[in-house]
Structures are given as structure tokens and as C-alpha cells.
């Protein structure tokens, strides 16, 4: 089996990154994490990635004077240098232009902390609490030109408790993120998460999806 060379793009602490790196340590996992790239030189996740022995790179967006395409071309060049086949965005806090999205169409995935298509954008936990939803969660999806859109690969749900604050809810969602992201990357890397129009058909069975409502 050839493991798909995967880059993880981060901007911050990288807890999803760590979950992916840990999952990819299993010898039968279909992806290998070959690069962690950050747009912020001070991203905590870079240190963690280095501790894991993963090559890291920084493409600092502040060096491009607002030229988003040049910034993305620089990222694309680094990805190609490392012979990357799949890209997993994990808390990468830059809005992408059609350039990078098109270059990596069908090969780039993202995790969003809400059950899409609800609560696209930022402050998802605050907004979920304000709406009074009783289930919240996270979504891994292919990246498309529209932000937090694109075919859904895996979702995980958590209950919302009466006493939740944005922080307690975020912590519960984060645990489900760490479960679903490795699952979704595996489905993409082994070719099971096939895009059909605006949807993904993964063929996942009941056993594989049982734990997606947690706890
Ligand atoms: C996660 O909540 C993820 O869903 C969102 O950004 C956050 C990143 O957290 N896109 P981490 O850096 O993976 O810990």
C-alpha cells in the first residue's frame, strides 16, 4: 500500500494536527504526514510537529503585502517540493482564493467546528448556544471555492448541555474533532470518500459510523 503523502496546514496550537499525526503512526493508516506548514512562525503546533519528527515549513502571510495569490503560490511551491498528494487544513486561519482551491480540488480537506451547513464562519459555539440547538458538532469536508462549503466527508455530533458555555461546548466538540478527522483523512487517502456532485459517497457502514455521536 502506498501511503498518501499528506501536508497539514495550521495557524495555531495544532491539536487536530496532533490527532492526525498520531493516527498516521499506525502502520496500516493510508496517509503519512509528510509536512506541517504554518502561516504563522509562532504557531505552537510547529513545535509539536517537530517533536514528532515531522518536517515543518512556514509561509508567513505578512510577507506578501496582502497579495493572496502570491502567498498561495508560495504555499503551493512548498507543497510540491515535498511531493504532497493530500492537504488537510487544521485550524488554518486564512481564507483561500480560487487559485489554491482549484490547484488542490478533490485533494484538500478541512475541519469546521459545527455541523455544516449550520454555523459557517467563526464563533460557531457562541452562535450554537444563542440558537439553542441541542446537538452541535464538527464536520470534515472537501474544500471548495466557498468558505466552509464543499462535499461533507464525516460529521460528529455532541449534545449541548443547559449549563454549557462557549468554552465547555468547544472542548466537547474538540474531542469529537479528534475522532472524526483521522477517520475522514483515512477515507480520502484510501480512495473511499468519492465526490459525486455536491456530495461524498464513502460506503461507510453502521459499525464505522457508530461512534460519531459522542458521548
Ligand atoms: C478547531 O476547532 C478546528 O475545527 C477549527 O480551528 C480549530 C483548530 O484547533 N478549524 P487546533 O489548532 O486543531 O487545536
TrEMBL record:
N(1)-(5-phospho-beta-D-ribosyl)glycinamide binds at residues 14-16. The active site is at 112 (proton donor). InterPro entries: Formyl_transf_N, Formyl_transf_N_sf, GART, GART_AS. Pathway: Purine metabolism; IMP biosynthesis via de novo pathway; N(2)-formyl-N(1)-(5-phospho-D-ribosyl)glycinamide from N(1)-(5-phospho-D-ribosyl)glycinamide (10-formyl THF route): step 1/1. One of its GO terms (cellular component) is cytosol. Its EC number is 2.1.2.2. It holds the Pfam family Formyl_trans_N. It is an enzyme of class 2 (transferase). PANTHER family: PHOSPHORIBOSYLGLYCINAMIDE FORMYLTRANSFERASE. This is Phosphoribosylglycinamide formyltransferase. The gene is purN.
